[in-house]
Amino acid sequence: MTDEGLAVIIVGVLVVAAFFVVAIASTLIGAFIGWVVSLTPLGSGVMKIWTKLTGIECELWELGAFLGFISGFFKGILSAILDRNKD
Fold first, then answer.
1. Counting beta carbons within 10 angstroms of the beta carbon of residue 49, is it exposed (0 to 12), middle (13 to 18) or buried (19 or more)?
2. How many whole angstroms separate alpha carbon 55 and alpha carbon 30?
3. Is residue 43 included in any domain, yes or no?
4. CB neighbours (10 Å) of residue 25?
5. Residue 59 in 3-state DSSP?
6. Contact present, 64 and 30 (Cβ < 8 Å)
7. Residue 1 is assigned to a structural domain of this protein
8. Residue ranges making up the domain that contains 62
9. Residue 16: which pLDDT band, with cuts at 50, 70 and 90?
10. Which residues contact 57 (CB under 8 A, 6 or more apart)?
11. Residue 46 lies in a domain
């Protein structure tokens, strides 16, 4: 294996690790924000809308964690694609 091939493998592993870290961080932030919103009167309204749209009942922190994970995962993927297309 050449040095160039090893560098490509290392960069690939770092990119995958970065996606994972961003997704986990977004999940934690989303869960926290969901919990904070649940403490306000806005929380019950958000849950009514979520339940009417999806039929899924959950806690607001779970909804925040779910949405945080999805947005964090796609943010990492989309920013990698957009950065690659800039060149």
1. exposed
2. 21
3. yes
4. 13
5. coil
6. yes
7. no
8. 19-79
9. confident
10. 51
11. yes
Q: 30-67, pLDDT tens digit by residue? A: 999 999 999 999 999 999 999 999 999 999 999 999 99
Copy the structure tokens of residue 58: 């959950």
How far is it, in rounded angstroms, from Cα 12 to Cα 23?
17
Q: How far apart are CA 75 and CA 23, in angstroms?
A: 8
Number of structural domains in the chain: 1
Task: Report the alpha-carbon distance of residue 13 to residue 19 in Å, rounded.
Answer: 10
CB 71 within 8 A of CB 28: no
Q: How many angstroms separate the CA atoms of 40 and 76, rounded?
A: 30
Of 81, 69, 78, 79, nearest to 21 (Cα)?
A: 69
What tokens were used for 76?
């990492």
